[in-house]
Write a structure and sequence with these properties.
Length: 392
């Protein structure tokens, strides 16, 4: 019988890392170093001050993390597993930074690349890869994000132009975006419009007093007879399939990202329970605590295996949105439960931002809701199993 000679990594019990290629490991290490040096020391303050640390944007761009899956247009052309690892390491720092990169990469650069004209790609993608242009993605409306087909924002043709009216809610990067990709109903079905900041009739309002994703900007967008030229419509995107395809990309990244938040929490409580002496012994020496830590490791390990499997089949072009729903649901739930339990394990200290769990826990309350709530993903899986659409 083989016995192990080296200790396992508590944050990667099944050595998922050994399944990565050398290039993938290098990407992960580079982003991990950036997060350790440039994000973790400063992010708590940004969270407390409800402030997006914009100074990180050029550094993220320099590392090639915007639109990293795109080939050409000054993008890195990395595979899907690399994109996942990027999300994981960024979210180990904070979900806000991962959200920024997800929106820029999966929700704005991806659709411009997939559905845009050559002119749109040339104009926006290199500038977004360099971090000089920030994008946002406007799909959700105030009357119900889970039912985007019931879209009230609409656009009508006026000569070569389009006129947009309506509003969007809960839009990441909204008030700081140079360009908004806005989904609106038209006579031809849902279309995607690139609305540039300062376009007359287009206004944004930042949502204040969030208790979650405080280091991220979230906004409402308003469109009052906003005129955009026909050249700003994505020519290849007609119908709900287009925005939903963007969400599949972003949800895939989220399934990886939340693993990083969970790892940060487990790391913190392993240290804490070794140092905290109660009833004459370290907390980590009690059965109850070991069971709780073991549960966390189980959650992280299963999430890692799910995401890696997703990444591999995504790179083979075999990924189904249902599989992404399963992973987004499982991994967000696991990470949120780990963060909540880690918060409790820290006792009173757990409510202090000096320790990471409460910040991750509060962030994950958004992450489990956005890009499809847990219920929405469960219903997607249920529909696949039964063939019955139970949304209505
Ligand atoms: C911080 C943050 C950032 C965001 N960023 C963006 C962004 O950049 N772009 C964007 O377009 N959107 C964004 N969103 C919006 C997000 O995607 C929506 O909040 C989400 O889709 C849920 O929509 P809702 O808030 O309107 O809730 P609702 O759709 O009203 O859902 C309310 C509740 O009903 C449940 N529910 C829904 N359908 C059913 C059903 N059929 N049966 C039973 N229960 C059901 C839901 O699970 C939920 O618990 C963001 C949200 C947050 C919080």
């Amino acid at each position: 019988m083989n016995t192990r000679s080296t200790k396992l990594d508590p944050l990667d019990l099944l050595d998922v890392r050994s399944e990565l290629t050398e290039d993938e490991r290098m990407v992960q290490e580079t982003v991990a170093r950036f997060v350790d040096d440039q994000v973790i020391p400063f992010i708590r303050e940004a969270f407390e001050q409800h402030h997006f640390p914009r100074e990180l944007v050029p550094m993220v761009a320099e590392l090639g993390l915007f639109g990293s899956s795109i080939d050409g247009y000054e993008c890195a052309g990395l595979n899907s597993v690399c994109y996942g690892l990027i999300c994981q390491e960024l979210e180990r720092g904070d979900s806000a930074l991962r959200s920024f990169v997800s929106v820029q990469s999966s929700l704005v650069m991806f659709p411009i690349h997939a559905y845009g004209s050559d002119e749109q790609k040339d104009r926006w993608l290199p500038a977004m890869a360099r971090g000089e242009v920030v994008g946002c993605f406007g799909l959700t409306e105030p009357h119900g994000g889970s039912d985007p087909g019931n879209m009230k924002t609409h656009a009508r043709r006026d000569g070569d132009d389009w006129i947009i009216n309506g509003s969007k809610m809960w839009i990441t990067n909204g008030s700081i975006a140079d360009v908004a990709l806005v989904w609106a109903m038209t006579d031809e079905g849902v279309r995607g419009f690139l609305v540039e900041k300062d376009t007359p009739g287009y206004t944004t309002q930042e949502i204040e007093n969030k208790f979650s994703l405080r280091a991220s900007v979230t906004s409402a967008l308003f469109f009052d007879d906003v005129r955009v030229p026909g050249t700003n419509v994505l020519p290849g995107a007609t119908g709900m399939k287009a925005p939903l395809s963007c969400l599949t990309q972003a949800r895939y990244g989220i399934s990886w990202g939340v693993i990083g938040a969970a790892q940060a929490c487990l790391d913190e409580v392993i240290r804490y329970t070794n140092e905290r002496i109660l009833f004459g012994r370290p907390l980590s020496h009690t059965q109850a605590m070991q069971i709780r830590l073991a549960h966390m490791a189980r959650g992280i390990t299963t999430a890692q295996l799910l995401s890696l499997r997703l990444g591999r089949i995504k790179d083979q072009g075999r990924l189904s949105p249902v599989q992404v729903s399963l992973a987004k649901w499982n991994n967000c739930r696991a990470a949120l439960e780990i963060a909540r339990d880690a918060r409790d394990i820290l006792g009173g200290s757990g409510i202090s931002a000096e320790y990471v769990p409460i910040r991750h826990m509060l962030n994950l309350e958004s992450v489990i809701t956005y890009e499809g709530t847990e219920t929405v993903h469960q219903l997607v899986v249920g529909q696949e199993l039964t063939g019955v659409n139970a949304f209505g």
